[in-house]
Write a structure and sequence with these properties.
Length: 277
Amino acid sequence: MSNSIHLLLTADVMGRPGRRLLAALIPQLRNHYDLHGVFINAENVAHGFGMGLKQYKELCDAGIDGFSMGNHVWDQRELIEFIDQVPNIVRPANFPPGTPGKGHAVIPCGGLPIGMINIMGRVFMQALDCPFQIVDREVTALKAETPIIWVDIHAEASSEKQAMGWYLAGQVTAVTGSHSHVQTADERILPGGTAFITDIGLTGPMDGVIGMEKEGAIYRMAKQMPARLNVLETGAVQFCGLVLEVDPETGKTLSLERLQYRYETIEEAEGSCLFPG
Ligand SMILES: [Fe+2]
Ligand SMILES: [Fe+2]
């Protein structure tokens, strides 16, 4: 067996606190795990809504290799203008034909091609093409180029994400969930070497409602009236991720480690040393 490589994956990264967490922790994680690539879900990096060019450039500078999206993909309309100009952003593959952008990409990381697919669920979400039929098409396209394939299933229902995990077991390197903003503790390697977790969880503020200020979220639900939602900029924060050890020849996951680091403040995170000595 050839030398294994390590990849770091995240789910939803929320607003400025999320971006600051990445800037503080990715260099330490990259060094500690000798990471070959870092891939995030970026649908919430711009104040909770989409990703603009400014955040994209900032995150590339922070060492992010690939970006997956979700239902918030077009919240920053400028992404419509630049998504086809850059190689490393994928939006849900089951959007209608002709939608800007692409559902899969191959990212060269240290000379090794890493495939990524973004697919969206349909349970309690907008009506899209069948994620199972479309993911077959995307996996087939990527397999011609690389055995290392990450599938980010952006979905509300745990059941749909688990179904996708089993559906692709043995075919891809990892199927990981995003969109719920809550980490699940069910990470495992499915038969055939496919890493799976229902949701990697939010990287961002902890003291709100899925990353937003709690007052607005409570008002909307309790009063059934519109209220502005702002990313919570204060209080405790968390980084959530999944580290995979992968055989680059076969694309199979050999081991995995679920990460969750919590801090009282973003400043504490920025001063932290994850691996002393
Ligand atoms: Fe999200
Ligand atoms: Fe989402």
